[in-house]
Amino acid sequence: MSVFDVEIGGLRGGSADLARYRGKAVLVVNVASKCGLTPQYTGLERLQERYAERGFTVLGVPCNQFLGQEPGTPEEIEAFCSTTYGVTFPLTEKVEVNGEGRHPLYRELVDVPDAGGHTGDIRWNFEKFLVAPDGTVVARFAPQAGPDSDEVVAAIEKHLPA
After folding, report:
1. Hey, which residues are catalytic here?
2. Among 44, 59, 99, 157, which has the minimal tally of Cβ within 10 Å of its Cβ?
3. Where are the domains of the chain?
4. How far apart, in Å, do the first and last CA atoms of the chain sit?
């Protein structure tokens, strides 16, 4: 099974249809609107704009497990993201990324180590996972790693479809 086989809802209902990203590089990020790292939305949107035509997308996954920093309804989350940060990349339904209620998407992601060797539970909002076009999870980045950091950009460029 790959990440592209997991079922997850869209922010406004229906399916987010991860299968449509097969053949693309995808940066999966658990996002929150009321976090000190929320300004990372700007960098995430820049990545989306820079690489979308080359077979890349950011996939935002709202999560309210970290100090209740994503309390909004789907409508509020969508309005905040588009109005405040001009977000155009897709957002899924709000999910749990840790614990017994961990969404199957995150079950597929959390065993991949970051550069420091961390695996397992998501540490905070804006932890990032890069999925290669074949559905393999190829990189994990700590929440504090900026979307436009050299390490994130280099990994994306390395895994863009040929």
Report:
1. 35
2. 99
3. 3-156
4. 23
Cβ neighbors of 19 (< 8 A, separation 6 or more) are 4, 5
Evaluated on CA atoms 108, 111, 117, 123, the torsion sign reads positive
Amino acid at 91: L
User: What are the pLDDT digits (tens) for 44-98?
Assistant: 999 999 999 999 999 999 999 999 999 999 999 999 999 999 999 999 999 999 9
Across-strand partners of 51?
none
The residue type at 158: K
CATH for 3-156 is 3.40.30.10
**Hunting for tokens 């991860």 — which residue is that?**
18
Residue 9, helix vs strand vs coil: strand
